[in-house]
Amino acid sequence: SYLIFRAASESDGRCWLDALELALRCSSLFRLSASKQGKDGEMNCSSDSAHAGLNNLLHSSPLSDQEFFHLNESALENHHHLENDAFSDKSERDNVEESENETHENSRKTNESESDQSEIHGEVSPGRKGTTYVEQIYEEFGETGESSQTETVSEENKSLMWILLKQLRPGMDLSRVVLPTFILEPRSFLNKLSDYYYHADLLSQAVLEDDPYSRIKQVLRWYLSGFYKKPKGIKKPYNPILGETFRCCWFHPQTNSHTFYIAEQVSHHPPVSAFHVSNRKDGFCITGSILARSKFYGNSLSALLDGKAKLMFLNRGEDYVITMPYAHCKGILYGTMTMELGGKVTIDCEKTNHRAELEFKLKPFFGGSTSINQISGKIKSGEEVLASLDGHWDGEVHINELKNGNVEVFWNPTSEVRRQRLKRHIVLFEEQTDFESERLWQHVTSAINKGDQHKATQEKFVLEEEQRNAARERRENGTEWKPLLFRHDATTNEWHYKYEDLRPWDPLNDIAQFEKNGILQTMERHLSTRMSNHTTTCINNQITRHKRSAKDCRRRKTSDQPSNHSQNTESSCSTPESVQELSDDDGFGSLCTQCGKEMNHLKEIHSAVLSLQRAQQDIHRLRHMVSSESFLLDSRCWFLLCIFLTCQLFINYVFK
């Protein structure tokens, strides 16, 4: 129940209390608990604020999903007012000995509170109220197994299919072909790409694994979790309109964090979808782009997803490059239409030299029901195979650890696992822009859900015609369309999120991650300003104590009736621990021990960085010298080789 600090001197004790107060102020856990307790009327602003802060921190209850999720400017303002009320300087109140000192302390406290408030408002202003997200209540799931991947086309729709197929030839790209609405899934392709993040908590766990083999296993488990959700029947999502965007997020109750997903259609011909996923608090980000292409092969067609996604673990500096399988649909002209996944995919981490390989197998011609949706794979470290996997991508997957021969279930989307899916939140419809997927396709989606294919076709044609007119206007005006949220890197031919933040999460400085108008931001508490305020406070404390000690000494020296006691007191004032004829200027030179240590630590870091920079420059110069020398050696070798060949030809000619 008690925490006792013993300091060598009063000044050290004051610095300790200041450091404790600073640590509590920088703790996001305490801030959130203080906000909740203040809301419930449980916040007690006692005189012993440092002890109250510790007690609140130790007994704080976590915020619920909705309380944290609707964190806005007003809540933060109220919370910071609570924080300033709850935190007073205990050491100053305990040492109110003189009236002038008390006045000085009160004025200092007021100034500190004002500076804290201005600092807080400076932090909240860039993160005004974020986007309002609401939980998605309904989520459609197809049946497990083969039944949800087959569909019998009605006679009416078959006639539409024949009209469409007459325009096609084998090997043709279907990206410019207008497909009938009865085969459309009522959501955009940008929305469908977000299906991989309902189990993003597996990535949060992977970041915490110390062993690289355990990390890539957890990443592979997350990768498999994105496939078992299937639509009812064989459906294709909408082709996104150029400039279309989609935003959503998932709340992690275990870590009190959010995974944000932002996607944009950055190109229409060819159709390229770029996406960015971020959860800085849990330590991972994903970025990538997908080029969707369709190929017609007569009785079948394939939807190819060209592109890569890069998963980054921010605290470890690891990148996992991930590829995607293709979707294959057969039975278009005759037989039952069936959809499967096929192809080989990889998850490759160059830093740890670990690699996972998976093969999605198509059902063989004479295969039974158990041979559909099969996968097999292996996990490698360099050239060494560590484990092998086999099973079904929509069911059980087993792993065989080759070192010890253990075989166990690696992944199985049971009903319990499905219940543990993270809740997805989508942007409130009133706050969506005209090019948000849900608002953009709302009339088409409504008609499909009502079964009115004629109305859906009309609404779809209106959107496509508007897109053609906009492209025609840009050509006539000579203007180039530019994406809103992503930029293209011409050297690597990759798309990057304009506002990506790949810094590791700093729990002392970062409060929460939020999104506004497609821009991901982090609400921060700037420690540099806090440290400068702390240093100024320590200097003021030193000056005040030095003035008080000097005044006491002068008063005792000029006493009318000196005695043995006064002489002892006078000598005690001249001891090293008290004061050594200190002036006002001396206070600035004698900072507290903690500040001195921090300054020395910063100097050491600065010198270390400078030495690293010098070493990098030396290495760069050496590389340049070696490359130039190797070029000279190569030129010399070529010259000698030419002379040798000339001599050989001459000798052959002479002795022929």
TrEMBL record:
Residue span of region Disordered:
83-131, 546-581
In Gene Ontology terms, what is one molecular function of this protein?
cholesterol binding
- Offer one Pfam family short name for this entry: Oxysterol_BP
Q: Where is the composition biased (Polar residues)?
A: 560-581
Basic residues biased stretches: 546-557
Question: How is this protein annotated for GO cellular component?
Answer: cortical endoplasmic reticulum; cytosol; membrane
Q: Which residues form the PH domain?
A: 1-25
Coiled-coil annotation reads none
- UniProt superkingdom: Eukaryota
The family database entries (SUPFAM superfamilies) matched by this protein are listed as: Oxysterol-binding protein-like
**What are the UniProt keywords, alphabetically?**
Lipid transport, Lipid-binding, Transport
List, alphabetically, the PANTHER family matched. OXYSTEROL-BINDING PROTEIN-RELATED (PTHR10972), OXYSTEROL-BINDING PROTEIN-RELATED PROTEIN 5 (PTHR10972:SF213)
Protein family membership? Belongs to the OSBP family.
Task: Return the protein name.
Answer: Oxysterol-binding protein
Highest classification ranks of the organism? Eukaryota, Metazoa, Chordata, Craniata, Vertebrata
